[in-house]
Amino acid sequence: MRSSATSIQYEGVDTDQNVLQKHVMFFDRNNDGIVYPWETFQGFRAIGCGILLSTTAAIFINLGLSRKTRPGKFPSLLFPIEVKNIHKAKHGSDSGVYDTEGRFVPSKFEEIFSNHAHTNSNFLTSDELMAMLKANRVPKDFAGWLASYTEWKILYILCKDKNGLLHKDTIRGVYDGSLFEKMAKEKASSGKHAVTPPL
Ligand code: HEM
Ligand SMILES: [Ca+2]
């Protein structure tokens, strides 16, 4: 089911509990509340990723998150991710912008930029992003380090501008998934003239 709770608007971003759900709903291609591996694959393809990245992402994301979103249920070999329980798939060493219920926390979002956007408060350079990832690391939380690194590096590679800068509105758009919709529209409209995907 799509977002139903009352939402507080923060510069156009919902802060209700469904924001993390919105982040993944783009990948629930048939809107049945479950993201199967082939839907993760199709979602990655739709935003312009190559076959290799889309396949790898589908395998790792669904193998990694399926069990966590299906507490108490028997593991399924189809590796479904249940959108309504996606907050249970949160990991450590993240930015804290999603709280434990998957809500968007505006102050944490602003902290990314007040703490790390030294060059200009409207974007992160590659080095600043790396410094943020290191600062977010919880000691010995290797799985969390890897998860955060992968999420942010993929975002950076796909969405940096021509000068290698990752803009604040791009980052804002990833949280509620609106960035994915935008990328998919751009991919669709570029049609046959699409450039080779960056990954
Ligand atoms: C190109 C595709 C994707 C990109 C670029 C991406 C990027 C991100 C980023 C940047 C974060 C924020 C991490 C933080 O605040 O430190 C995040 C969080 C998250 N993403 Fe994605 N994501 C993608 C696809 C997916 C998919 C397909 C799923 C699952 C179906 C997913 C599940 C999650 C979850 C559960 C979190 C919360 C992690 C946490 O805060 O601990 N993402 N993602
Ligand atoms: Ca589905």
Unreliable runs: 1-8
**Morphology:** globular
Q: Identify the bound ligands.
A: protoporphyrin IX containing FE, calcium ion
How much is the radius of gyration in Å? Answer: 16 Å
**Which strand-content bin applies to the residues?**
5-15%
| Span of the ends, CA to CA | 32 Å
**Strands across the major sheet, in which order?**
1-2
Tally of separate domains: 1
Helix residue percentage? 40-55%
Structural class: mainly alpha
N-to-C SSE string, H for helix and E for strand: EEHEHHEHEHHEHH
Number of helices, where a helix is a run of at least 4 consecutive DSSP H or I residues? 8
Largest β sheet strand count, sense and barrel closure = 2 strands, antiparallel
How many beta-strand runs? 6
Mean pLDDT, to the nearest integer, reads 91
Family: Belongs to the caleosin family.
Pfam family, one: Caleosin
Keywords: Membrane, Transmembrane, Transmembrane helix
InterPro entries: Caleosin-related (IPR007736), EF-hand-dom_pair (IPR011992)
